[in-house]
Amino acid sequence: MSALLPLPPQPAGVAWPTQAWPTGALPVQDQRRVDDALDHAFSRDGIAEIGETHAVVVVQGGRLMVERYAEGMGPQSTHASWSKAKSITHALTGMLVGDGLIDIHKPAAVPEWSASSDPRGAITLDQLLRMSSGLKFNEVYLPDQGSDVIEMLFGAGKADVAAFAASLPLAHELDTHFAYSSGTTNIVSRRLAETIGARGAAFEAFMRARLFDPLGMKSPLPKLDEAGTFIGSSFCYATAQDFARFGLLYLRDGVWDGRRLLPEGWVDYARTATFQQADTPDGPYGAHWWLGLGGPGSFSANGFEGQFTVVVPDLDMVVVRHGRSPLEAKDRLAAWMGDFIAGFRG
User: Fold this and answer.
1) How many helical (H) and strand (E) elements, i.e. helices and strands, does the chain have?
2) How far apart are CA 311 and CA 292, in angstroms?
3) Paired residues of 317 in beta bridges
4) pLDDT digits (tens, 9 = 90+) for 280-317
5) Beta carbons of 100 and 61 less than 8 angstroms apart
6) pLDDT exceeds cutoff 60 at 344
7) How far, in Å, CA of 307 to CA of 243, rounded?
8) What is the DSSP letter of 303?
9) Which residues of 161-199 are buried (b: 16+ CB within 10 A; e: fewer)?
């Protein structure tokens, strides 16, 4: 396993963006290259190639360096997270680990698995975070393909997303098979709520007090189901600038303005590759973060229809992209993201 790239500290003299982003200017050569790439992404040809781009924000060295929005949108526009919310769930889990309230390597204590004869009772939060629990879950996005995620979010499971996911059987032995699953994230989210005894508005208050407020994230709108569980797989709306703040927290190893918000080693856990089958699509995975989209050592929160927060340690950079890209454009969009970021390397 290759060594993880160092996570850069906030440069001396650069204010933390808790209140407002410090800004900077790119070198002229970089600015021209960036402008060309963005002009294409927001153009009619770019939309035909990679889908609609609604926002692109680039933070480098702790400063807001690039910001572009589609017509009718701007810095105050909120965007759907889709599965970027999974990385928010990862952060919340880390906070309870840091509090000493959760051990991710012990059985997750899920009520539906409490019978002594139930093999699911041995599943750990670590396995759920690494998508290696073995639980059945069909993560497809077309209703005619037997989609568990559609049924969970919009069908029979929508009132209690965690109960729906926890009711599913094992399809593989624990920790032997990687399968991306929104259901497992919602099981984790409910477990967090149970641990602190907070559901519904009380859990949202916890999210704001421990994560959003310290970062100066004023825009997030997390969605909770009728059972009071944060739908941590899929639903937290926010501005592109606020998603960049969240990415900066991970770029800075969980430290914000001198205060450690995530326990030491938690960001490294997120960006350490887990086992995957050779034919696994969409690239390597860590723990509720994808790996490699922005080049070696990068890690990213990725969401349906092309939502991205990419953390790039070697460039001291966070790149946020929001839009509406069809599934058939997924590979082209990933290539555009990779090329856009690579352009900053010269």
Assistant:
1) 12, 11
2) 10
3) 60, 312
4) 988 999 999 999 999 999 999 999 999 999 999 999 99
5) no
6) yes
7) 10
8) E
9) bbbbbbebebeeebbebbbbbbbbbbbbbbbbbeebebb
- Residue 306 is given by DSSP the state T
Tokens of 197: 């005894």
Q: How does strand 317-324 pair with strand 307-312?
A: antiparallel
pLDDT confidence of 1, banded at 50, 70, 90? very low
Q: Please report, as a single letter, which amino acid is at residue 177.
A: H
The two tokens of residue 322 are 């929001």
Residue position matching structure tokens 């989210």: 189
User: Positive or negative, the Cα torsion across 27, 28, 33, 37?
Assistant: positive
- Per-residue three-class SS string for 117-160: CCHHHHCEHHHHHCCCCCECCCCCCCHHHCCHHHHHHHCCCCCC
Q: CA-to-CA distance for 120 and 110, rounded, in angstroms?
A: 9
For residue 248, give the DSSP letter. Answer: H
Retrieve residue 231's tokens: 């739908």
Structure tokens at 267: 């960001």
